[in-house]
Design a protein that fits this description.
The protein is mostly helical and about 150 residues long. Helix content is about 65%, strand content about 10%. It contains 7 helices and 2 strands. The protein is globular.
């Protein structure tokens, strides 16, 4: 085992940081990644979530907070920015005057389609060479890591 392998085994967080950096670089070089300038990863992730993860369901600010494990103020600022950019709008719902559902505009749908394409290609690259059983195991392990991190009150 070489020195880098030993370090990654001893410090899984370093390995995860390396993977995150590689995924970020991969996203930037994909031909589909022709996003408008000034788009952040958080903004793109939110648009992707609205389009991909909750397709057809009403989505509210608290859903974004819960899914991404972000503070209310952070999500509020993020949504305000997306609204100012004309990528989403907040619509009242008849059953609760306090709630506003998040709806992508046409421009938001176009960008979220690009984000979906990039995410699908990144998923393909990420799991290439893994058997279906390994993909399942990998997903389960990531879920455990996510749970451990969220349980640590970070």
């Amino acid at each position: 085992m070489d020195q880098f392998s030993k370090e990654r085994t001893a410090y899984p967080v370093a390995q995860l940081a390396c993977i995150v950096n590689q995924l970020h670089r991969l996203a930037l070089i994909m031909p589909e990644a022709k996003f408008p300038s000034g788009m952040t990863v958080s903004q793109l992730s939110t648009l992707g979530y609205l389009s991909i993860m909750r397709d057809g369901e009403d989505v509210y600010q608290r859903d974004i907070e819960t899914f991404f494990k972000l503070r209310r103020s952070t999500v509020s600022s993020l949504l305000n920015t997306l609204e100012r950019k004309g990528l989403l709008r907040r619509e009242p719902v008849p059953h609760d005057a306090r709630l506003k559902k998040l709806v992508l505009t046409e421009a938001g749908l176009a960008i979220s389609g690009q984000a979906r394409s990039v995410m699908q290609k990144m998923n393909q690259v990420l799991i290439q060479g893994l058997s279906p059983e390994e993909v399942t195991q990998f997903s389960e392990l990531l879920g455990k890591v996510e749970y451990a991190l969220s349980s640590s009150n970070c």
